[in-house]
Automatic annotation (TrEMBL), chains A, B:
It comes from the Bacteria. Residues 21-82 form the HTH tetR-type domain. This is TetR-like C-terminal domain-containing protein. Residues 45-64 bind DNA. It comes from Streptacidiphilus jeojiensis.
Length: 201, 201
């Protein structure tokens, strides 16, 4: 056991959550900030993140292995914190609540920067895996909204989960990234009602 | 009248379409290529476009005035060429046809690069006006799809044109820019049917 590990344990006893949790939070935060500045394909290195977070690069490497694992962990952790899956008891209200959370997320400087970075970069092999895993994890987290709606007979049993989530999430990103118009009062509700009942309905 | 203008007119007589139309096409093409390389906020100048197009910067300035006018003209002209508004006789088929055109457009290197550039850049004042005008012009061009559907009683008279078009167009851009998954066979039809008849329908 090294002297540092002993210190870590001592501090972990003193402070609930502990040094390990704090270091992890610092490293993930440094990763997001670097990602927002560089874009995910922009040559982000473990040593730059280590410098920003004030920890040793070797500690990061021991814990996450590669930059791409670290990026994935940072994006997923951040989105889970910012975008908890609503459970209101109805599909409409769940969709409205999730859309509001995503709109607020995309309206923050970090949310904007991350979405721009994900949209902008040319695919490099290191990122390609993280991107697919990120969206898969987001779908896995939010598919319970669709599962619960099926259980309540609000949606057919053979509903395409991904289609529901994409139709809800895509217009919010389209506005934030491409049109750059704010989502005006009442628009989320009108959008959700159109999705649920159909434009021709 | 200068010697060059005399030559222009002589050439315009010799070749239908003429030198003026050819210069315009060359300048717009050079603008798109530069835009795709730089991103629209990336310090695009009239002199760089002039060099790429092989014309004098003063000719560009006389014709378009500013870089932002030129960018707007280039993007609108290109999208009008690539995305003619379908008129099939039914709303469903118009929506499917437009979605196919947009998917194919976003799948070209130039289409990808332009969408990435529009998504990526921080807003500069020069671009902000062009962006709003670009999307307004695209909505104006495609709203006839909704108008004709209202006339055929396929949509209610108070249908929100922009909502219809955004719900159709956004998932295609979301896939191309953020998820980077190809649009698989049959997905456009399933998406259009969900939009028309509702997820809960």
């Amino acid at each position: 056991m090294t002297r540092n590990e002993t210190n870590d344990q001592a501090e972990a006893v003193r402070r609930p959550g502990g040094r390990s949790a704090r270091v992890r939070a610092d490293v993930l935060r440094a990763t997001l900030e670097a990602l927002a500045e560089h874009g995910p394909g922009g040559g982000l290195t473990l040593s730059e993140i280590a410098r920003r977070a004030g920890v040793h690069a070797t500690s990061i490497q021991r814990r996450w292995g590669t930059v791409q694992n670290l990026i994935l962990d940072a994006l997923l952790t951040y989105s889970q914190e910012q975008l908890p899956v609503p459970d209101t008891g109805s599909l409409r209200d769940d969709m409205v609540a999730l859309a509001r959370l995503i709109t607020a997320y995309l309206d923050t400087p970090l949310g904007t920067a991350l979405a721009q970075a994900m949209a902008a970069v040319d695919e490099d092999p290191a990122l390609a895996g993280s991107r697919a895993q990120f969206w898969q994890a987001r779908y896995d987290a939010t598919r319970t909204i669709v599962d619960r709606a099926i259980a309540r007979d609000e949606l057919a049993a053979d509903t395409d989960h991904q289609l529901v989530l994409e139709l809800l999430v895509a217009p919010l990103h389209f506005r934030a990234l491409l049109i750059r118009q704010p989502v005006e009062e009442g628009r989320i509700e009108r959008m959700v009602d159109a999705l649920l009942h159909g434009l021709a309905g």
